Amino acid sequence: MTTRPRVRLISIAWGERYIADLFNIALPAVLAPDNLPALVERCDCEFVITTEAAWFERLRAHPMYLRLAQYCGIEFRPIDEFLTRQDAYGMALTYALFRGFEDLGPAMLDTYLVFFNADFIMADGSLRSLAEKMAAGERAILAPSYCVIAEEVAPKLEAMRHPETGVLALPTREMAALALKHRHNTIRGKTVNQRLFSLEWIDQFYWAIDENTLLGRQVPIALVCMRPTRVVTEMRTYWDYGILAEACPEVEPFVLGDSDDFLMIELRRAATAREQILLGWPTRQAIAQNMLGFVTSDTIRVAGHMLVLHSEELPPGLADGARQLHAYVESVLRELPQQLPSHLNHPNWVYHYARFHEARQRYLTRSSKPSSAADLSASPYGGSPVAQPAQKPARLRRAMRRAAGRLYRFVYGTAPAFRPLHPRWADTQAILRRLASDGATRVLTVFSAELPEAHFRRFGTLQLTVGDLLNEHSSGGGGDQHAPPQVRKAPTGVAEDRASSEVARHPFWPEFDCCICDLSTSDVLRLRTLFQHLMHYIREGGMILVFHLNPAGGSAAPLRELIATGGFAFDAPYEVHFTGSAESARALAAFSSAVTFLKSRRPLRVAWGLMRMTEAAVAASRAHRRSATAAELDPRHVTSIVIDIPVPRRSSFGAGCRPETLPGAADLSLATSLGATEIGAATSARAGSTA
């Protein structure tokens, strides 16, 4: 007679929010048909939940507790003594997990221990896969967790629970789609081929293949199951730093890397790690240097495993992406010293150990309770410039201003073909160079109507506001789906009859080579929606260029806040171009103040404005010469961002079909060929200015 394996599931939760996540989402997912019920068919199961003692009685009356008890016995273990220092979360987590199996003693060598935190949500079928690997003899099983934005995903998961049983049975592909759509900034900021921003500490590396596929390498990968080969009597290391070396020193870990086999998402608040956001991407040396603060010889054992999260069948470009990610991660790991810190007596562990246990002993002596931290509310982002009232000039003043305008255009140029003396010259160059190198002639421009500076407003073949594109034409804000859009036409230059005949020959508007999106802060926040609309009008292999001016000049703080609140939350592979330096930011500030002074009627202020304008021109010229030869821009002084998004195959991105015609295309009074004329003029002006 074969003995059924003994399995103990261990979960931890403290604090009202995490306890709610555990009982309202995580445990309902554990109860999915191919999770705990499938595990119980093969194994003798028991459940241990480590939490605060004050919650024991309330949780025993919870409907999820009663349903869980139908499958296995449940025990609560108190962890109040570990919750004594708010700066020692890693210590508390380590000891809370150990509390879940320390009572087993030598019996732990014959027990499979399955771990998941309160905010780890498993897809249906994950525990069945785990049972199959146990039966195959694996003793240390690892699987990744993928962080998602809790405020967006948790309500969706709760709504998916069965109305009668409360069980959450979400297939792996559906959960993968949810994870990919709502991925947290701690994933976006570690995606190697999306380098708009990064995080200060990088312990994971991702590669976006398409909207439905994400590759990953994690250091470490979460331990989801182990059957120890050594009896652990005390914790001598952080859980993630060295639990494998402590409990399974001779075991080769098995990684469930394909999300079809095992999928676990991690609910994480949107504000988590917001203070770590950095514009741009660090060097390999900088990443490796920071990794020395947490990587150990134990965690590096699993760094070579490739992980894949996918909501559809694996795409053709997977192998190429895997090679590129592998090459990049290996180049980072080569920067680490050959002798890595041991998991024992790690500096972080030594730093916290004495104070943590002193506080723990005081609690056990006095039964004191830990205090809770107050939530910090994020400061609002934004602020718009105040419009200055226009003054009606006299005839002489009007003539002088016309002359000044001609002089201004001669010296500084006009958007987007600025001359190098203009502080915004460098901001537009990334797009103009990209258009020239690609040979794009049919260009669609989409701009935010509220922008005080929309540099590409009159550029290209056809111009639409974001509202035009999304059919938002009602003054009440709701949008009249059938109202005609107000199409912005390019400057006159082609006969009306020629333009009309061109449109007549194209009842379905031809695909554009490129789209330039000149976006405000509010429209950056809905970039994903814009992309889903635009991809049907841009040819495969074309490009979408997203242009965003920093509203605060050279300060990076507003851009970091925009990213933290969901700006540029985009799933496709892309390249990013930053523009700006400390000098260009100073030039921009001087230019803005000069314009204000020059609008004055007072001669002294006008004279001061001319001095500031000269100062701005000199600073801009110096900044542009230096930025042209700089290998990397300083992300602390960013004046603009350009996101270069290649348009993928239609089958790679999202559902939906191409509408019969672009909004307003039937009213277009300009032939497509004008796009080539205007682009050629702009790029020629750029080339002449550079020369």
Can you offer a commentary on this structure?
It contains 23 helices and 23 strands. The chain has 691 residues and is of the alpha/beta class. The chain folds into 2 domains: 350 residues, no CATH class; 231 residues, Rossmann fold (3-Layer(aba) Sandwich), CATH 3.40.50. The strands form 6 sheets. Strands 3-2-1-4-11-6-12 form a 7-stranded mixed beta sheet, with helices on both faces. A 6-stranded mixed beta sheet has the order 19-18-20-21-23-22. Strands 5-13-7 form a 3-stranded mixed beta sheet. A hairpin with a 2-residue loop joins strand 9 and strand 10. Helix 15 crosses helix 23 and helix 21 packs antiparallel against helix 22. The termini are far apart.
Considering the chains and any ligands shown, give keywords for the structure.
37% helix; 6-stranded mixed β-sheet; alpha/beta; disordered C terminus; 7-stranded mixed β-sheet
Summarize the structure.
With 691 residues, the chain is of the alpha/beta class. The chain contains 23 helices and 23 strands.
The strand count comes to 23
| Terminal-residue CA separation | 87 Å
Mean pLDDT: 80
Strand order of the largest sheet: 3-2-1-4-11-6-12
Overall spatial form:
elongated
Runs in which pLDDT lies below 50 for 5 or more consecutive residues are: 368-393, 473-508, 628-632, 653-661, 664-681, 683-691
Largest sheet: 7 strands, mixed
Please work out how many helical segments DSSP would assign. Answer: 23
Rg over CA atoms: 30 Å
Beta content: 15-25%
Number of domains: 2
- The structural class is alpha/beta
Helix content: 25-40%
